[in-house]
Design goal:
alpha/beta; 10 helices; 12 strands; 337 residues
């Protein structure tokens, strides 16, 4: 029987971080004052090998995982990424293999990823303004190269979605211009509320632009209507343009949490399993594998962890904020069993 957690949520999606390194230093993710030249990034022996990634992924698929998203750091920094995509699609027959990238290397790597069987790609574009984009990437990089990567992927037939993290007073003035740009090109644009992930991104509720406000701004320019989720547990609330020119999505973890139907697990680059995006401690799946566990043993280990899962951090944060309190990050999201 496939495992369900303490809130009867199944395990369906797995996010795999294939590297902890990134070529950007976005302030909301990897600020350069923290992730500077001396930062102790993982070394090769600490990272999962291609074979280990495949074996661990196989254990997760045996428990009901149908969608795997490859992330980082920046996943395109990993040279064997197309080989991993090929293994997930050809060997494991994962129905949905997706990639989230900053797009800097996408123009070059899109052909190999498409040939390997990648199903779709999400590209982060937080600004079209060169100065703002440079600040948000932390290193002054231009958005033009990222947009060429989007075009290259789309030209190969890869479905592309755009992710945009919105911050009050930083890039919220570009909501309409971003919507217009990607509306013209037929790419769904997902606006993401600025979240308190990690402990280094200087998060403040004052920087959050509520999803409802974003919808109202765009609807004033192009009328919108809500559409239902494409699958159970979809994190984005979706709206389509009434004139038929595509859609937008809103990921509102801060103002409208969706913990009640979250069926996502996250595997860090060093093989730790986190059952909540906001968890600060994980379970050592890679250590279990290297200690001699086979895929059945790994599956049993993961199933025990998932059955004890109690995570609902965003819901609890909303409740405590409403009461004028604060909520600590999740440490070990498991109650045993």
């Amino acid at each position: 029987m496939l495992p369900r957690d303490t809130f009867n949520r199944p395990l369906r999606d797995l996010r795999i971080s294939v590297t902890d390194r990134c070529n950007f230093r976005c302030p909301y993710c990897m600020p350069r004052e923290v992730f500077g030249p001396g930062y102790p990034f993982l070394r090769d022996p600490q990272l999962m090998t291609l074979e280990e990634l495949t074996r661990i992924a196989r254990a997760f698929t045996s428990l009901g995982v149908e969608k795997i998203r490859l992330t980082g750091g920046e996943p395109l920094l990993r040279p064997d990424l197309p080989d991993l995509v090929r293994a997930l699609k050809a060997e494991l027959r994962v129905p949905d293999v997706a990639l989230t990238t900053n797009g800097w290397l996408l123009e070059k790597t899109a052909p190999a990823l498409r040939a390997a069987g990648l199903d779709r790609v999400n590209v982060s574009v937080d600004s079209l303004d060169e100065a703002t984009a440079g600040r948000l990437k932390g290193l002054g990089f231009s958005t033009a190269r990222v947009l060429r990567g989007v075009d290259a992927a789309a030209a190969l037939g890869l479905p592309v979605k755009i992710n945009c993290v919105v911050q009050r007073g930083v890039n919220d003035g570009e909501i309409i211009s971003l919507a217009g740009y990607f509306r013209e090109r037929g790419h769904p644009l997902r606006f993401i509320e600025f979240m308190d992930v990690g402990n280094t991104n200087h998060w403040s509720p004052d920087l959050v632009v509520p999803a409802r406000e974003i919808v109202e701004r765009i609807a004033a320019a192009w009328p919108l209507e809500p559409i239902g989720p494409a699958y159970r547990g979809e994190v984005a609330a979706r709206y389509r343009y009434r004139d038929g020119r595509g859609e937008i999505g809103l990921i509102s973890s801060v103002t409208e949490p969706f913990c009640r139907d979250c069926h996502r697990a996250r595997l860090s680059a060093d093989g730790k399993l986190y059952t909540c995006l906001f968890a600060s401690l994980g379970w050592d799946i890679l250590g279990c594998l290297r200690a001699g566990a086979d895929e059945a043993g790994l599956g049993d280990f993961v199933a025990r962890i998932w059955r004890g899962r109690v995570d609902r951090y965003s819901d609890e944060r909303a409740e405590t904020r409403a009461a004028g309190e604060t909520r600590a990050k999740v440490e070990m999201s498991y109650i045993g069993g």
